[in-house]
Amino acid sequence: MLLTIAGCGVDTVPSTPVNLFDQAAAPVVTRRVAFDTMWVYGGPSDTAMLNADRVAAFPDGEAAVLDLLGRRVHRVGADGVVWSWGSRGEGPGEIDEVRDLDVNSQGEVVLADAGNGKLQWLSGGGAWLREAGLPEGTINVDAIASLEGGHYILSSLMYSTALSPSESMARGPMTSYRWVRLSATGEMEGLVPFPWNGFHSMSFLQTVGNIAGARSSSAGGRQWVFGFGLGNGFFVFNDSVAEPYPYVRHADFPEVETGSLAGGRTGFRVGYSEGRPERVARDVAVRSDTVFVLAGNYWEIDRYESATGQYLDSMLLPVPLSQFALAGEALIGIVAGATYPQVIALRAK
């Protein structure tokens, strides 16, 4: 399997082979869980969404859904669309290219608008509240996670010119993958140090992954998790302390090479020797003391103890999901491969 991605002015140093873990955590133990369907939104006659890219959960079990193609955010639930917000533009209350969203502990929706270089906040009722500029040097912002106390973790590449020499680890104009800690108002509080030396020799494409914050946990709500989307393992952070743990099934990181693409462009070739692995993080979530990882096959969620990384079990889902979020006992997800964009809320019996 080979993926090609165009790039311009990026680090062209080829990746070196690297793996966080050589072995899997444990044999896969799949539980066939019975689920109640709490609600479903989306279909040929009742959808306002052009597509559904990311989902975040409100405490009451409704969902904030990002429609990137439509430049809209929708709050949906058992009664359908509660509100829709968004229009394309650069002014206050307008969005361009939102890569991710989350719901904070105050019930507000925070948007990471990479196109406009802004964070934007909406009330739970769908009213635009405020905005803040993204930290200087951030590019390709692709994820945001809300923590207790109004803090955030932003997942972004960083231009090395925006960092001090001691912080920059790049061999080109761009650093490796970065996590930025933000205040409640969106101000940069600091960079999260790399918790593993292997990051230094990896292509930024190898370090693509997902993040999720725990707004309520035994760690006081400052716990968050990063899961690799292309290779083996995840990290659990509690403030600045991080511990790595392997996925239940080992997944080699892909090879990444640079080269010429059609049209004289320079780009990246991401290669898998045996196809994309099943056990990588399509999405992650944290509830209490448990980390949930949506497997690459769309149909299973693997569960791990957040304190020890111990693998617990895997839940077989009634429908395939491309993204998911947790609200209390509810699991809210975007149905993968649906003819029309569809969001479903499930609860284990």
Question: How does this model look, in words?
Answer:
With 349 residues, this protein is mainly β. The chain has one domain (2-43, 86-320): 6 Propeller (Neuraminidase), CATH 2.120.10. It is built from no helices and 28 strands. It has strands at 2-7, 30-32, 35-41, 54-57, 63-67, 72-77, 80-85, 98-103, 109-113, 118-122, 128-133, 138-146, 152-158, 178-182, 188-191, 209-213, 223-228, 234-238, 241-245, 255-260, 266-271, 283-287, 290-294, 300-305, 311-316, 321-327, 330-335, 343-348. The strands form 7 sheets. Strands 2-25-24-23-22 form a 5-stranded mixed beta sheet, with no helix packed on it. The chain has a 4-stranded antiparallel beta sheet with strand order 3-28-27-26, with no helix packed on it. A hairpin with a 5-residue loop joins strand 8 (98-103) and strand 9 (109-113). The radius of gyration is 19 Å and the shape is globular. The termini are far apart. Residues 1-14 and 168-175 have low confidence and may be disordered.
Strand order of the largest sheet: 2-25-24-23-22
End-to-end CA span: 39 Å
CATH class: Mainly Beta
Query: What oligomeric state is this?
Result: single chain
- Sketch the major β-sheet: 5 strands, mixed
**How much helicity do the residues have?**
under 10%
Unreliable residue runs: 1-14, 168-175
CATH topology: Neuraminidase
List the helices and strands in order. Answer: EEEEEEEEEEEEEEEEEEEEEEEEEEEE
Q: Architecture in CATH? A: 6 Propeller
Number of helices: 0
Tell me the overall shape: globular
Number of strands: 28
Structural class: mainly beta
Mean pLDDT: 84
Rg, nearest Å: 19 Å
Provide the number of structural domains. Answer: 1
